Amino acid sequence: xxxxxxxxxxxxxxxxxxxLDLGKxxxxxxxxxxxxxxxxxxxxxxxxxxxxxxxxxxHATAFSLEMIPTFAIGCAAxxxxxxxxxxxRPVPVVKGHPELAAHIAQSVxxxxxxxxxxxxxDVDHGLTVPLSLMCGQPSEWPCPVIPFAVNVVQYPVPSGRxxxxxxxxIRKAVESYDAPLKVxxxxxxxxxxxxxxxxxxxxxxxxxxxxxxxxIADPAxxxxxxxxxxxxxxxxxxxxxxxxxxxxxxxxxxPPKVAHRFYHVPASNTAVGHLILENQQ
Length: 281
Description:
Elements: E1 3-10, H1 14-21, H2 28-35, H3 38-46, E2 51-56, E3 71-74, E4 78-79, E5 94-95, H4 98-110, E6 116-118, H5 125-135, E7 145-150, H6 160-175, E8 182-188, H7 205-217, H8 219-222, H9 227-234, H10 242-249, E9 257-267, E10 270-278
Parallel strand pairs: 1-8, 2-7, 2-8, 3-6
Antiparallel strand pairs: 1-10, 3-7, 4-5, 9-10
Helix pairs in contact: 1-5, 4-6, 6-10
């Protein structure tokens, strides 16, 4: 049977992708950010999964305000990098895993989670920046990727509790797949940041690190945090962190092994957070 071996958590700041694509990773400002992922790139090479299930949010590229699914699973064979206004990023096309994606959709929907099934979509920086941070600039990504888009842009957005329980349903789905696949679940977005209004530029280091502590040690308790706490403490875009609870819920109930932890301020106008948690079966 398939099994989930680890979860990865990272911010997906678009400026990070631009720094990579424009060859600025060695500049003093950006070097501090990318240094936090050197361990991660080596770790991924030693722990390459058969499939990555990548939780992210679309930024009005695949979905517009005319249609916003709460949860959408990509079931296509491939997903092209999106043009976000300045051309697609020069990164490989994302190869999907339609068989596992369809199985997860079937299992999760039967567990009463309503998913939107997407058979054609482009993927934006929310998905490609995490892959670049973990893989560098390869000619192709190291394994198939199942995109899983969550609405954290237009309210109402799903609760942390809903996301955490969805992660558990995804774990159940993966473990019932009849093939010996190693699967990683990645949660992306965050950490504290606000892009508009009087609080634009807000970063809350103390809250961010407390969130990481609780994500590791008390995910069930963390999942009860109401939306207003995310917005008040981590800014309007800090709500993206509910997506990390999907990845955390996908791990077993045993305490995970913390393989890597990194936090840095600033990258563009946000905080960068990063964790690798290895599953303990």
